[in-house]
Amino acid sequence: MVLALAKEIEMRNSEFQDEVVETIYFGGGTPSILEISDLKLLIDTVYSNYKVVENPEITVEANPDDLSKERIIELSNNKINRLSIGIQSFFEDDLKMMNRAHNSEEAKECLEFATQYFDNISVDLIYGIPEMSNEKWLQNIETALSFNIPHISSYALTVEPKTALHSFIQKGIIPQPDDEVAQEHFQILVDKLSENDFIHYELSNFGKENYFSKNNSSYWLGKKYIGIGPSAHSYDGEKRSWNVSNNTLYLKSIQENKLPSETEILSKTDRYNEYIMTGLRTIWGISLDRIQTEFGKTYLDYLNQQAAKYIEDHLLFVDENILRTTKKGKFLSDGIASDLFLLNLE
């Protein structure tokens, strides 16, 4: 599979001829279990086929049980300069309920080692867990802060079909996640991280100055990107493409020198809706000047009309011709965005 990934990187270099690679991100599944030689091969293939900035952000996603001290040292001795670690919780009962492979001690131990070899670390935390008190959630945040982690991504618990969690809820072993509890946890998170000099730069992401995720910020700012491997998505500003998810079909296509992808050309309305969704989730907001220039007066008039009621309810505000969510509106930003969407104006 690694050789196929390297070959796809080579096959797609013409798509990025006029661009410079700023970030390389190994995510999806558990890329940290790849051999160091595999990661190095893929990074070197990017360097030999694309223009790369002098000091790109190179991130590896990992779970705590993948990150022994030896593994962390191996990763740090290469071009990798950022770790994104799926902690989720520092409490044993939460991890068991979410069917995580690691335990609480492994979560803390891997951060002890990781912070010795990496400055740029992000951890994932889950809020809105059934029966989690506000005090327990605050302890989770404080434990992460005790390791001087500069970036935290935090998401509300979601229940996927055919998972252990879904089964527990169906059997009445644990209750359904409560939206009001999730909102309380979210506000505790925002307040606590703000007190500790984190910038809430995207709905689910908090970073200290100079520690925002450059990779994810590229998505939210509408930059071009190429996704490599089964199920990976790519975007060039006008078209979105996605690779086949089946590993066998993916490998067969690459062996035949064919890109295993489908492509969709985004309409103006699609691009408007995506900008509204990403803009409201971030500190950069929605530029009304950009709406006027890129989409036209009809779109701008519609946006202003739809946004007016949220401005009146103190959920949105306009500052220097940028539409943003208020502190009160941030948790509701996805719902607000959907009300600003257009079905079609073309």
Automatic annotation (TrEMBL):
SUPFAM superfamilies: Radical SAM enzymes. Residues 1-199 form the Radical SAM core domain. Its main location: cytoplasm. Keywords: 4Fe-4S, Chaperone, Cytoplasm, Heme, Iron, Iron-sulfur, Metal-binding, S-adenosyl-L-methionine. The keyword 4Fe-4S applies. SMART domains: Elp3. It is found in: Cytoplasm. Belongs to the anaerobic coproporphyrinogen-III oxidase family. HemW subfamily. Probably acts as a heme chaperone, transferring heme to an unknown acceptor. Binds one molecule of heme per monomer, possibly covalently. Binds 1 [4Fe-4S] cluster. The cluster is coordinated with 3 cysteines and an exchangeable S-adenosyl-L-methionine. This is Heme chaperone HemW.
